[in-house]
Amino acid sequence: MSDATLTGGCYCGAVRYRIDGPVLSAGICHCATCRRTAGAESVGWLTIAPAQLVQLAGDPMRYTSSPGVIRTFCPTCGTSLSYQNDPGSIDLTLASLDDPEAVPPTRECWLDHRLSWNPANPALEGFPEGGED
User: Fold this and answer.
1) Collapsed DSSP state (helix, strand, coil) of residue 73
2) Fold observed for domain 6-126
3) Which of 18, 30, 52, 121 sits most deeply, having the most CB atoms within 10 A of its CB?
4) Domains of the chain: which residue ranges?
5) For 100-116, b where at least 16 C-beta lie within 10 A, e where not — what string?
6) Segment 51-86, tens digit of pLDDT
7) DSSP character for 36?
C-alpha cells in the first residue's frame, strides 16, 4: 500500500483532507448500504488509522447509517467521504482522493450483494460477505 502523503476532498472543494502515513488496505465494497449511501453500484475504500487523517478545510457532516457506523459527507455538495465502525480505523472513499490511481484496490467484499450488471474483478481477492478482515 501507499506510504506517500495523499490528499483528497469533496467535489466542490469545501472539505479537504490529508493522509499522513501508510494506507492499511484498499478494496471495493458491494454491500447494499454502501451502494445506497453513495448512489453508486459499488464503493472503493482505503483504510487508515484515524490519527493519520488530517482535516485541512471544511467540516464534514456526520450520519449514523446503521448502529455503530458513522459516515461523513460534504454538507455542500454531498460527496461521500468516510465510513467508521471501529475506533481503530477509518475508511475513506478512494474516489475522493486527488489521485485515486495512487491506491489501487486489492480486494472486493460483499460480492453476494453485487449487482448482476457490475461484474467482479477476477484480478482482485474476493469475499462473498465482509470477511476481508
Assistant:
1) strand
2) 2.170.150
3) 30
4) 6-126
5) bebbebeebbbbebbee
6) 999 999 999 999 998 899 999 999 999 999 999 998
7) H
58/73 Cα distance (integer angstroms):
11
Give the separation between CA 27 and CA 129, rounded to whole angstroms. Answer: 13
Express each pLDDT in 109-125 by its tens digit. 999 999 999 999 999 98
Q: Which three cell numbers stand for residue 115?
A: 449487482
Cell triple for residue 76?
A: 455542500
**How far apart, in Å, are the Cα atoms of 115 and each of 11, 80, 111, 120, 123?**
26, 20, 9, 10, 18
Closest by Cα among 90, 123, 122, 112 to 42: 112
Q: Do 29 and 115 meet the contact criterion of CB atoms below 8 Å apart?
A: no
Q: Could you identify the residue written with the cell 464534514? A: 60
Residue 133 — pLDDT band, cuts 50, 70, 90? very low
Instruction: Report how far residue 105's alpha carbon sits from residue 68's, in angstroms, rounded to the nearest whole number.
Output: 25
Which cell numbers in the block locate residue 123? Answer: 484480478
**Count of CB atoms situated within 10 Å of the CB of 5:** 11
